[in-house]
Amino acid sequence: MKFSNSLNVLLLGSGGREHAFARKIAESPSVAKLFIAPGNAGTAQCGTNVDINPNNFGSVKQFVLSNNINLVVVGPEEPLVRGIYDFFCEDSQISNIPVIGPSLEGARLEGSKDFAKAFMARHGVPTARYQSFTKGKLPEAEAFIDSLAAPYVLKADGLAAGKGVVILDDAAAAKAELAEMFSGKFGQAGNTVVIEEFLSGIECSVFVATDGKNYKILPVAKDYKRIGEGDTGPNTGGMGAVSPVPFADEAFMKKVEERIVRPTVEGLQQDGIAYKGFLFIGLMNVAGDPYVIEYNVRMGDPETEVVLPRITSDLIAMFEGIAYGRLDRYVLEVSPQTAVTVVCVSGGYPGDYAKGMEISGLDTPTQSIVFHAGTTAKGDKTYTAGGRVLAVTSLGGSIAEALHASYDTIGGIAYEGKNFRRDIGQDLIGLLK
């Protein structure tokens, strides 16, 4: 099977990742109409925003049927973990419409950290030593903490909006945190807690497109999670990203493919898990050897904002390969340029923050790509609508060149409470010296 030459696409999601997808999808000559549900002020420049909750599968189905949608692309994890792929497959009215995203079982790689760790152990994928505990096993969990060297890594099993991972240097503090997690700090996501040894190294994000059998490794990125310079302060959804990553050289990536990517895709096949979408592998480079920190079952944010601008081949052709099991025929073309994105956030984020601040300077011509993350449009004005507001991406011949362009663009954008990190990529520049 093949996609038609006049494709109607529905993209689910509303963040910077979805704006990056929308921009890339809209570039394809085979796309007739692009709808984004619910989208933001930026995605509205690429297609038509529709007021639909991606988790309301009945509404999604109704829109798909009413608008002759030929392809559904799922951006965020929640619809996947809730089983939107299976919902389409099991409904005869829409089962012929490809969904880019894994099955409910495949989405458990992100939806359950315990499931993911067991999958890695079963298929020989290198990861940190761990054990999982339910709330009735507090004494056993505390004993396992005592068996580990500091620092201690505690992970709520389920989805916790990116806040379910805690790293503590003191065993007593780790035990107190564990008790809080079992007591409902992260809701039902903390009913099971994964405790694991700490891996010391430098992180990167490896993205894989797969049709369940064949795969393509996309550009590697590194993101910056903490709110403050020097990786200080609380974790956020992501304050910036860089691609490519200097230490992810050919030798390292050969290890990644042989030890992690291939065993993971083969493991999905062996376990009979349908997987047609993206796999985000969070890695730690430990003295030159890759270890998996976590799996996510979609593209990352803000990493998508540096990965997709570097892909020069047709994204719809990639989706066709994913949907119909022919990804091996897809020729992935990647720009050698460096991409850097710097995220502008609302004042107070990741804590309490105000919304509805008018944003100025978005109409100024710039060499950067300004992806909207948490924005909304009212008339001809744009306002803040989230913690992460904009992701400003630039391409250049080096990290320093791309960074300079992004910061120059940010200087021309204004809204009350604007905050951003001024050291994105500086650690990688140091590696290049």
What does this structure look like?
The protein has about 425 residues and is α+β, with helices and mostly antiparallel strands. It has helices at about 15-25, 55-65, 75-80, 85-90, 105-110, 115-120, 140-145, 170-180, 250-270, 305, 315-325, 400-410, 425-430; strands at about 5-15, 30-40, 50, 70-75, 100, 130-135, 150-155, 165-170, 190-195, 200-210, 215, 220-225, 225-230, 230-235, 240-245, 275-285, 290-295, 340-345, 360, 370, 375-380, 380-385, 390-395. It has three domains: about 5-80, Rossmann fold (3-Layer(aba) Sandwich); about 130-195, ATP-grasp fold, A domain (Dna Ligase, domain 1); about 200-430, ATP-grasp fold, B domain (D-amino Acid Aminotransferase, Chain A, domain 1), CATH 3.30.470. Helices cover about 30% and strands about 25% of the residues. Strands 3-2-1-4-5 form a five-stranded parallel beta sheet. The chain has a five-stranded antiparallel beta sheet with strand order 12-15-18-23-20. Helix 5 packs across helix 6 (about 115-120). It is globular.
